[in-house]
Amino acid sequence: MFTSRIPQRAPDRELTSPPGRAQPATSARVPALGLALWAVAVLALHGVLLTGWPAAVAPLRADAPRVLTVRQLAAAPIAARAPAVPEPSAPQRPGAVARSSSTQALQASQAPMPALTALEAQAALAASASTVAAATTAQAAAPATAAAASAPVPAPAAASDDDETLQLAAAAAPRAATPAAAASAPPTYRTRIPPSAVLRYDLRRGALGGEGELRWQHDDGRYELQLQGSVLGLSLLSQSSRGGFDAAGLAPERFLDRRRGREQRAANFQRERGLITYSGDAAQHPLLAGAQDRLSWMVQLAAIVDADPARWQPGTQVEMAVTGSRGDSDVWTFTVSGREAVELAGGRPIEALALAREPRKPHDTSVQVWLDPARHHLPVRLRLSNGRDGDALLFVLVP
Q1: Which pLDDT does position 289 carry in this prediction?
Q2: Which residues contact 222 (CB under 8 A, 6 or more apart)?
């Protein structure tokens, strides 16, 4: 067995100086000198890197303009289509300017380009594509423009008076015609306007009773008409019509209608435009001669019958266009039933001319009216029925 002898390490010497003696300066300068050498080496290395970096990356920057080869490839299809574009035979032909612009754009795209950065090359490529697209669109539109310009313009046909009337009505009505507008306009009649009057009525709605009032006033070519109806102190309806007069009789300008539980609506007769418009609806209807609203028809009917009472025998009819306040318009046809005995409020009997208007569609208004010859054929009895609103309204004159 081998044994080795490990020399014993001598004890470290005391590094501290004996008391009263200063430490040697050499041990403090050695670390400082080493740090200074390291700092110089690091600075030298940074200088070498900063000096050599531009030279290392310069070849890469020199190769950057090679991206322009993409632009040359994009312009190649234009060069292929260029021979198919016919050359203009004369400077005045349409499309010459567009072709010239396309040729100039093609030549510009094939010309040698200066060295550009990558971003500048992409921007130039986008601008070139926009120019070529615009030139191609102009070339496509040029033949159509030339054909339209060279096509002969047909001579306008002579228009009759009826054609001019229809053209004016079509220009005034931007929306599709309603059944009332599509039908032929109703006839107009000779009228005799009744004098101003205030008529009071006993109003009934089913088992409920109330009162109504028709106030008719006209002066100096203008009129105002109001109808009020209430039951148990509650207003059921409030209607008003105002306007003037023309050759067909009453010429309404504005109609207001308010029913219990509904907001007020209006119909406007725009005579300068030949239209009837509405406050709560976008509908428009042609303003026909003799057209009335849902209140003025009462006085208009009295004026027609009073102008020629002998004409209106049983079976004869009176037609007029009537509009409400909610975009509705239709031709109302009143058929004469003949003279009938009716009782006024309080039981007094009189003889009156009875007419009726039958509804033309569901929830349409049904009208029965009795006109008194002694009162210029103003209504002394009136019944209005609408299936949607329930019980009918019955007005009976209070003498």
Answers
A1: 96
A2: 242, 243, 244
Give the domain extent around 78. Answer: 49-84+100-107+128-138
What is the spatial distance between Cα 342 and Cα 355, in angstroms, rounded to a whole number? 13
pTM higher than 0.85? no
What is the dihedral sign for C-alpha 86, 87, 88, 90? Answer: negative
Are 133 and 219 in the same domain?
A: no
Q: Please report whether residue 32 resides in a domain.
A: no
Q: Where are the beta strands (DSSP E) in the chain?
A: 197-205, 208-219, 222-231, 234-246, 249-259, 265-270, 275-278, 284-286, 292-293, 317-323, 329-343, 349-357, 366-372, 378-385, 393-397
**pLDDT tens-digit readout, 287-325:** 999 999 999 999 999 999 999 999 999 999 999 999 999
Contacts of 386 (CB under 8 A, 6+ apart): 363, 364, 365, 366, 392
Q: Is 211 exposed, middle or buried (0-12, 13-18, 19+ CB in 10 A)?
A: middle
Paired strand residues for 235: 230
pLDDT in tens, 110-161: 544 444 444 444 444 444 444 444 444 444 444 444 444 444 444 434 333 3
- Regarding whether 232 and 335 lie in a shared domain, the answer is yes
User: How many whole angstroms separate alpha carbon 281 and alpha carbon 276?
Assistant: 11
Query: How far is it, in rounded angstroms, from Cα 324 to Cα 276?
Result: 10
Same structural domain for residues 188 and 256?
yes
Q: Which tokens belong to 31?
A: 């670390």
Residue 339: predicted pLDDT = 97
Cα-based distances in Å from 280 to 225, 235, 255, 284, 296: 22, 22, 13, 11, 20
Q: Calculate the average pLDDT of the chain.
A: 73
Q: Do residue 335 and residue 251 come from a single domain?
A: yes
